Amino acid sequence: MTRLVLGGSGYLGRALVERWDAVGLSSRDVDIRDTAAVDALFASMRPSEVVNAAYRQDDRATTCDGAVHVAAAAAATGARLVQLSTDVVFDGEKGEPYTEADEPTPLTDYGRAKADAERGVLAACPAALVVRTSLIYGGDRPGPQERLAADPGATFFSDEVRCPIQVGDLAAALIELAATQRSGLLHVAGADRLSRAEFAELLAGRRVRTATVAGSGLVRPRDCSLATGFARSLLQTRLRGAREVLESRSAP
Ligand SMILES: NC(=O)c1ccc[n+]([C@@H]2O[C@H](COP(=O)([O-])OP(=O)(O)OC[C@H]3O[C@@H](n4cnc5c(N)ncnc54)[C@H](OP(=O)(O)O)[C@@H]3O)[C@@H](O)[C@H]2O)c1
After folding, report:
1. What is d(CA 237, CA 99) in angstroms, rounded to the nearest whole number?
2. Residues 66-92 as b or e (16 or more Cβ within 10 Å = b)
3. Domain containing residue 134: CATH number
4. Among this protein's residues, is 98 annotated catalytic?
5. Packing angle between helix 67-77 and helix 109-124, nearest 10 degrees?
6. 190 lines ligand 1 (CB under 6 A)
7. Residue ranges making up the domain that contains 187
8. What gap in Å lies between CA 36 and CA 21, rounded to an integer?
Protein backbone atom coordinates (compact mmCIF):
# COMPACT_ATOMS: atom_id res chain seq x y z
CA MET A 1 0.00 0.00 0.00
CA THR A 2 1.65 3.24 -1.17
CA ARG A 3 0.59 6.59 0.25
CA LEU A 4 1.43 9.79 -1.58
CA VAL A 5 1.64 13.42 -0.45
CA LEU A 6 1.86 15.92 -3.31
CA GLY A 7 3.36 19.12 -1.97
CA GLY A 8 5.35 16.94 0.41
CA SER A 9 8.12 19.56 0.71
CA GLY A 10 5.66 22.24 1.86
CA TYR A 11 4.66 23.36 5.34
CA LEU A 12 1.67 21.02 5.65
CA GLY A 13 3.17 18.34 3.42
CA ARG A 14 6.24 17.91 5.63
CA ALA A 15 4.05 17.49 8.71
CA LEU A 16 1.99 14.87 6.89
CA VAL A 17 5.01 12.90 5.69
CA GLU A 18 6.46 12.91 9.22
CA ARG A 19 3.27 11.44 10.69
CA TRP A 20 2.22 9.09 7.89
CA ASP A 21 4.05 6.30 6.15
CA ALA A 22 3.91 8.24 2.88
CA VAL A 23 6.06 9.29 -0.07
CA GLY A 24 6.28 13.09 -0.18
CA LEU A 25 6.94 14.72 -3.56
CA SER A 26 7.84 18.31 -4.43
CA SER A 27 7.50 20.22 -7.71
CA ARG A 28 10.96 18.95 -8.63
CA ASP A 29 9.74 15.36 -8.46
CA VAL A 30 6.51 15.90 -10.40
CA ASP A 31 4.99 19.07 -11.85
CA ILE A 32 1.23 18.66 -11.43
CA ARG A 33 0.64 21.15 -14.28
CA ASP A 34 1.90 18.40 -16.58
CA THR A 35 -0.98 15.93 -17.14
CA ALA A 36 1.25 13.28 -18.71
CA ALA A 37 3.68 13.43 -15.78
CA VAL A 38 0.84 13.07 -13.27
CA ASP A 39 -0.67 10.15 -15.19
CA ALA A 40 2.73 8.43 -15.44
CA LEU A 41 3.31 8.89 -11.69
CA PHE A 42 -0.03 7.35 -10.76
CA ALA A 43 0.42 4.52 -13.29
CA SER A 44 3.83 3.58 -11.91
CA MET A 45 3.26 4.21 -8.19
CA ARG A 46 -0.41 3.10 -7.98
CA PRO A 47 -0.91 5.00 -4.71
CA SER A 48 -3.78 3.79 -2.54
CA GLU A 49 -4.22 7.13 -0.71
CA VAL A 50 -3.21 10.59 -1.90
CA VAL A 51 -3.27 13.96 -0.17
CA ASN A 52 -2.82 16.86 -2.59
CA ALA A 53 -1.28 19.73 -0.63
CA ALA A 54 0.54 21.12 -3.70
CA TYR A 55 -0.34 24.64 -4.76
CA ARG A 56 1.21 27.96 -5.68
CA GLN A 57 -0.65 31.04 -4.53
CA ASP A 58 -0.13 33.04 -7.74
CA ASP A 59 -0.24 30.18 -10.24
CA ARG A 60 -3.68 29.04 -11.29
CA ALA A 61 -2.17 26.33 -13.51
CA THR A 62 -0.84 24.61 -10.37
CA THR A 63 -3.58 25.48 -7.89
CA CYS A 64 -6.55 24.72 -10.13
CA ASP A 65 -5.52 22.83 -13.28
CA GLY A 66 -2.91 20.75 -11.44
CA ALA A 67 -5.43 19.72 -8.80
CA VAL A 68 -7.84 18.59 -11.52
CA HIS A 69 -5.07 16.57 -13.23
CA VAL A 70 -4.41 14.83 -9.90
CA ALA A 71 -8.13 14.15 -9.39
CA ALA A 72 -8.48 12.63 -12.87
CA ALA A 73 -5.48 10.37 -12.26
CA ALA A 74 -6.85 9.34 -8.85
CA ALA A 75 -10.22 8.48 -10.40
CA ALA A 76 -8.57 6.51 -13.23
CA THR A 77 -6.47 4.42 -10.85
CA GLY A 78 -8.96 4.11 -7.95
CA ALA A 79 -6.80 6.06 -5.48
CA ARG A 80 -8.41 7.65 -2.43
CA LEU A 81 -7.93 11.45 -2.80
CA VAL A 82 -8.00 14.19 -0.18
CA GLN A 83 -7.59 17.65 -1.74
CA LEU A 84 -6.73 20.77 0.29
CA SER A 85 -8.71 23.96 -0.14
CA THR A 86 -9.07 27.24 1.69
CA ASP A 87 -11.42 29.46 3.68
CA VAL A 88 -10.86 32.31 1.18
CA VAL A 89 -13.19 30.67 -1.32
CA PHE A 90 -15.63 32.84 0.69
CA ASP A 91 -15.94 36.64 0.58
CA GLY A 92 -16.00 36.98 4.36
CA GLU A 93 -19.25 38.97 4.47
CA LYS A 94 -21.65 36.32 5.83
CA GLY A 95 -21.45 37.54 9.43
CA GLU A 96 -21.30 34.03 10.88
CA PRO A 97 -19.16 30.94 10.26
CA TYR A 98 -19.42 29.35 6.82
CA THR A 99 -20.78 25.81 6.55
CA GLU A 100 -20.14 23.24 3.85
CA ALA A 101 -23.54 24.21 2.34
CA ASP A 102 -22.48 27.81 1.62
CA GLU A 103 -21.66 28.64 -1.98
CA PRO A 104 -18.14 29.94 -2.68
CA THR A 105 -17.97 33.68 -3.33
CA PRO A 106 -14.23 34.32 -3.86
CA LEU A 107 -12.84 37.87 -3.97
CA THR A 108 -9.25 37.17 -5.02
CA ASP A 109 -7.55 35.34 -7.90
CA TYR A 110 -6.27 32.76 -5.42
CA GLY A 111 -9.76 32.25 -3.96
CA ARG A 112 -11.18 31.87 -7.48
CA ALA A 113 -8.52 29.34 -8.45
CA LYS A 114 -9.27 27.32 -5.31
CA ALA A 115 -13.06 27.49 -5.77
CA ASP A 116 -12.66 26.34 -9.40
CA ALA A 117 -10.27 23.60 -8.24
CA GLU A 118 -12.88 22.34 -5.77
CA ARG A 119 -15.50 22.05 -8.50
CA GLY A 120 -13.05 20.53 -10.99
CA VAL A 121 -11.70 17.99 -8.51
CA LEU A 122 -15.16 16.80 -7.47
CA ALA A 123 -16.30 16.58 -11.10
CA ALA A 124 -13.24 14.52 -12.10
CA CYS A 125 -13.25 12.39 -8.95
CA PRO A 126 -16.64 12.41 -7.17
CA ALA A 127 -15.29 10.09 -4.44
CA ALA A 128 -12.66 12.68 -3.42
CA LEU A 129 -12.82 14.67 -0.20
CA VAL A 130 -12.08 18.40 -0.43
CA VAL A 131 -10.93 19.80 2.92
CA ARG A 132 -11.19 23.56 3.39
CA THR A 133 -8.88 24.88 6.05
CA SER A 134 -7.60 28.16 7.48
CA LEU A 135 -4.23 29.68 8.45
CA ILE A 136 -1.74 26.91 9.25
CA TYR A 137 0.85 27.42 12.00
CA GLY A 138 2.76 25.67 14.76
CA GLY A 139 5.25 23.48 12.89
CA ASP A 140 8.68 22.40 14.11
CA ARG A 141 10.22 25.31 12.22
CA PRO A 142 8.74 28.82 11.90
CA GLY A 143 6.32 29.01 8.97
CA PRO A 144 4.89 32.03 7.13
CA GLN A 145 2.58 33.00 10.03
CA GLU A 146 5.37 32.85 12.62
CA ARG A 147 7.76 34.79 10.39
CA LEU A 148 5.22 37.54 9.80
CA ALA A 149 4.37 37.80 13.50
CA ALA A 150 8.09 38.07 14.34
CA ASP A 151 8.52 41.10 12.05
CA PRO A 152 8.49 44.19 14.30
CA GLY A 153 7.56 46.39 11.32
CA ALA A 154 4.49 44.39 10.34
CA THR A 155 0.91 45.64 10.83
CA PHE A 156 -2.02 43.26 11.36
CA PHE A 157 -5.72 43.70 10.66
CA SER A 158 -7.99 43.75 13.68
CA ASP A 159 -11.13 43.20 11.56
CA GLU A 160 -9.95 40.22 9.49
CA VAL A 161 -11.01 36.98 11.17
CA ARG A 162 -9.82 33.40 10.62
CA CYS A 163 -9.79 30.05 12.50
CA PRO A 164 -6.06 29.13 12.53
CA ILE A 165 -5.17 25.46 12.84
CA GLN A 166 -2.03 23.89 14.24
CA VAL A 167 -0.29 21.94 11.47
CA GLY A 168 -0.05 18.71 13.49
CA ASP A 169 -3.80 18.79 14.24
CA LEU A 170 -4.55 19.32 10.55
CA ALA A 171 -2.17 16.55 9.47
CA ALA A 172 -3.70 14.11 11.98
CA ALA A 173 -7.22 14.99 10.80
CA LEU A 174 -6.24 14.50 7.15
CA ILE A 175 -4.68 11.12 7.91
CA GLU A 176 -7.88 10.06 9.68
CA LEU A 177 -10.04 11.29 6.80
CA ALA A 178 -7.90 9.59 4.17
CA ALA A 179 -8.79 6.27 5.80
CA THR A 180 -12.54 6.93 5.36
CA GLN A 181 -14.75 6.91 2.28
CA ARG A 182 -16.18 10.37 2.99
CA SER A 183 -16.52 12.54 -0.12
CA GLY A 184 -17.51 16.11 -0.95
CA LEU A 185 -16.62 19.17 1.11
CA LEU A 186 -15.48 19.34 4.73
CA HIS A 187 -14.38 22.28 6.90
CA VAL A 188 -11.38 21.46 9.12
CA ALA A 189 -10.08 24.45 11.10
CA GLY A 190 -9.13 25.49 14.62
CA ALA A 191 -11.73 26.10 17.33
CA ASP A 192 -10.96 29.80 17.93
CA ARG A 193 -12.12 32.68 15.73
CA LEU A 194 -9.33 35.23 15.94
CA SER A 195 -8.50 38.48 14.22
CA ARG A 196 -5.17 38.56 12.39
CA ALA A 197 -3.94 40.93 15.11
CA GLU A 198 -5.01 38.65 17.98
CA PHE A 199 -3.40 35.68 16.22
CA ALA A 200 -0.13 37.55 15.60
CA GLU A 201 -0.01 38.61 19.28
CA LEU A 202 -0.43 34.99 20.39
CA LEU A 203 2.33 33.87 18.03
CA ALA A 204 4.72 36.70 18.90
CA GLY A 205 3.93 36.86 22.61
CA ARG A 206 3.78 40.69 22.46
CA ARG A 207 1.54 43.49 21.25
CA VAL A 208 1.61 44.17 17.49
CA ARG A 209 0.75 47.18 15.35
CA THR A 210 -2.82 47.04 14.06
CA ALA A 211 -4.87 48.48 11.22
CA THR A 212 -8.29 47.73 9.73
CA VAL A 213 -9.26 46.29 6.37
CA ALA A 214 -12.11 48.79 6.40
CA GLY A 215 -9.65 51.69 6.65
CA SER A 216 -7.09 50.23 4.25
CA GLY A 217 -9.16 50.48 1.09
CA LEU A 218 -8.10 46.91 0.22
CA VAL A 219 -10.51 44.29 -1.08
CA ARG A 220 -9.91 41.34 1.26
CA PRO A 221 -12.17 38.65 2.67
CA ARG A 222 -12.85 39.81 6.22
CA ASP A 223 -14.44 37.05 8.31
CA CYS A 224 -13.84 33.64 6.77
CA SER A 225 -14.55 31.68 9.95
CA LEU A 226 -15.36 28.08 9.15
CA ALA A 227 -18.09 26.10 10.95
CA THR A 228 -16.38 22.81 11.83
CA GLY A 229 -19.14 20.97 13.71
CA PHE A 230 -19.48 18.31 11.02
CA ALA A 231 -15.74 17.56 11.00
CA ARG A 232 -15.68 17.42 14.81
CA SER A 233 -18.49 14.85 14.76
CA LEU A 234 -16.41 12.64 12.42
CA LEU A 235 -12.91 12.99 13.87
CA GLN A 236 -11.03 11.55 16.84
CA THR A 237 -8.42 14.30 16.34
CA ARG A 238 -9.20 17.42 18.35
CA LEU A 239 -9.09 20.62 16.30
CA ARG A 240 -7.64 22.84 19.01
CA GLY A 241 -8.05 26.57 19.08
CA ALA A 242 -4.96 28.76 18.75
CA ARG A 243 -5.39 30.05 22.33
CA GLU A 244 -5.15 26.53 23.72
CA VAL A 245 -2.12 25.69 21.55
CA LEU A 246 -0.17 28.92 21.97
CA GLU A 247 -1.01 29.94 25.53
CA SER A 248 -0.06 26.47 26.82
CA ARG A 249 3.25 26.82 24.95
CA SER A 250 4.28 29.76 27.14
CA ALA A 251 2.80 28.39 30.40
CA PRO A 252 5.40 27.59 33.10
N1 LIG B 1 -0.64 27.81 4.62
C2 LIG B 1 -1.86 28.20 4.98
O3 LIG B 1 -2.02 29.01 5.92
C4 LIG B 1 -3.06 27.64 4.25
C5 LIG B 1 -4.34 28.13 4.54
C6 LIG B 1 -5.46 27.57 3.90
C7 LIG B 1 -5.28 26.55 2.97
N8 LIG B 1 -4.02 26.12 2.68
C9 LIG B 1 -3.87 25.05 1.68
O10 LIG B 1 -3.08 24.01 2.23
C11 LIG B 1 -2.28 23.41 1.22
C12 LIG B 1 -0.81 23.35 1.67
O13 LIG B 1 -0.35 24.65 1.96
P14 LIG B 1 1.15 24.91 2.46
O15 LIG B 1 1.16 26.23 3.12
O16 LIG B 1 1.66 23.70 3.16
O17 LIG B 1 1.91 25.05 1.06
P18 LIG B 1 3.48 25.38 0.81
O19 LIG B 1 4.25 25.32 2.07
O20 LIG B 1 3.54 26.64 -0.02
O21 LIG B 1 3.92 24.15 -0.11
C22 LIG B 1 3.46 24.05 -1.41
C23 LIG B 1 3.90 22.71 -1.97
O24 LIG B 1 3.39 22.60 -3.31
C25 LIG B 1 4.48 22.19 -4.16
N26 LIG B 1 4.22 22.68 -5.52
C27 LIG B 1 4.14 23.96 -5.95
N28 LIG B 1 3.92 24.00 -7.26
C29 LIG B 1 3.86 22.71 -7.69
C30 LIG B 1 3.68 22.09 -8.96
N31 LIG B 1 3.47 22.81 -10.08
N32 LIG B 1 3.69 20.73 -9.02
C33 LIG B 1 3.90 20.00 -7.90
N34 LIG B 1 4.07 20.52 -6.67
C35 LIG B 1 4.06 21.86 -6.57
C36 LIG B 1 5.71 22.81 -3.54
O37 LIG B 1 6.87 22.17 -4.02
P38 LIG B 1 8.32 22.95 -4.01
O39 LIG B 1 8.84 22.82 -2.62
O40 LIG B 1 9.13 22.21 -5.01
O41 LIG B 1 8.02 24.37 -4.39
C42 LIG B 1 5.43 22.53 -2.06
O43 LIG B 1 5.75 21.20 -1.74
C44 LIG B 1 -2.55 24.21 -0.06
O45 LIG B 1 -3.52 23.55 -0.84
C46 LIG B 1 -3.12 25.52 0.44
O47 LIG B 1 -4.00 26.13 -0.48
C48 LIG B 1 -2.91 26.64 3.29
Report:
1. 20
2. bbbbbbbbbbebebbbbbbbbbbbbbb
3. 3.40.50.720
4. no
5. 10
6. no
7. 3-247
8. 26
Atom 43 in ligand 1: which residue has the minimum CA distance? 7
CA dist 28 and 247 (Å) reads: 38
Helices 196-204, 242-250: inter-axial angle, 10-degree rounding: 20
Q: Verify whether ligand 1 is closer than 6 Å to residue 86 (CB atom).
A: yes
Judge if the beta carbon of residue 10 lies within 6 A of ligand 1: yes
Q: Is residue 252 part of a domain?
A: no
Q: Is any ligand 1 atom within 6 A of the Cβ of residue 133?
A: yes
Establish if 52 belongs to a structural domain: yes
Does 206 fall in a domain? yes
Cα of 59 vs centre of ligand 1, distance in Å, is 11
Domain membership of residue 221 (yes or no) is yes
Atom of ligand 1 nearest to the CA of 62: 31
Q: Could you read off the pLDDT tens digit of each residue along the chain, which spans 252 residues?
A: 899 999 999 999 999 999 999 999 999 999 999 999 999 999 999 999 999 999 999 999 999 999 999 999 999 999 999 999 999 999 999 999 999 999 999 999 999 999 999 999 999 999 999 999 999 999 999 999 999 999 999 999 999 999 999 999 999 999 999 999 999 999 999 999 999 999 999 999 999 999 999 899 999 999 999 999 999 999 999 999 999 999 877 554
CA of 230 to the centre of ligand 1 (A): 25
Under DSSP, the state recorded for 96 is: S
Instruction: Give the relative orientation of helices 11-19 and 167-178 as an angle to the nearest 10 degrees.
Output: 60
Q: How many domains does the chain have?
A: 1
Q: How many CA atoms lie within 13 A of 231 on its CB side?
A: 29
The reported pTM is 0.97
